[in-house]
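Can't paste images in this forum, so I'm doing it all in text. The chain is below; anyone willing to post the predicted structure tokens underneath?
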Amino acid sequence: MQTQQQAQQLVEPSALLRSWRSKRRLSQMELALEVGVSPRHLSFVETGRARPSAELLLALAARLDMPLRERNHLLLAHGHAPRYSQQPLQAQDMQPVRAALQRLLDAHQPYPGVVLDRHWNVVLANRAALDLTALLPPELRAAPPQPLNIIRASLHPQGMARFTSNFADWGGYLVEALHRAVLESGDAELLALEREVSAYPNVQALPAAAAPAAPALLVPCQLELPIGRLSLFTTLTSFGTPRDVTLQELCVELFYPADDETARLLRG
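Text version of the structure:
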């Protein structure tokens, strides 16, 4: 059964290709020459006057660097079967992936680490990260069917924002990252999340926040917690050469101490 999002994509198949070409700032001529078709034929594809083969669509999608989810939508919109699987992380076939991710997170102890899906929902976490979530009020913690969302938990006034001493910098970074994701994907759930957090009073106050006196190499998350002051920076890692939609959309976020005192506190 097709999802509502897939059904919406099927309404105007030619618009999908034009939209992604526009995002990549390519002309019809440039794209056509790079994939080895005539500009005339590409124009016919974009206007719906020609039915492209699945191979041509995949070549266009690869050049446009479309996510696997969008490549499936493009194929479906033009009457072809999707080429990329989409298995839930809890599926039996994904067990080796889950095990590898959990080993990675556990090896990162005593520093926090999480695995996120495309909506910034936490799907796996290590013990250090779970200890931090214990500081959240019940309504922001994971409670099926509501997962823990790291954007919501970080920006909500009663969430980690109340412990974040440099919220102007850290909150601004998160808001900007979310906005970029909305523009890039057009995802309705991300758009709803952006509208939600934009209504938080502390987020609404961010544009008036003063800029930092001097630029830093990294934007840390500085937390004033009962155990002491933590200063953390993050790294983001994704899978290479994925052939599954779920795998491509997973992201590992690992937090590292930005100073010696933070390292000492977390090791203790």
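Residues 1-11 have pLDDT under 50 and may be disordered. The radius of gyration is 21 Å.
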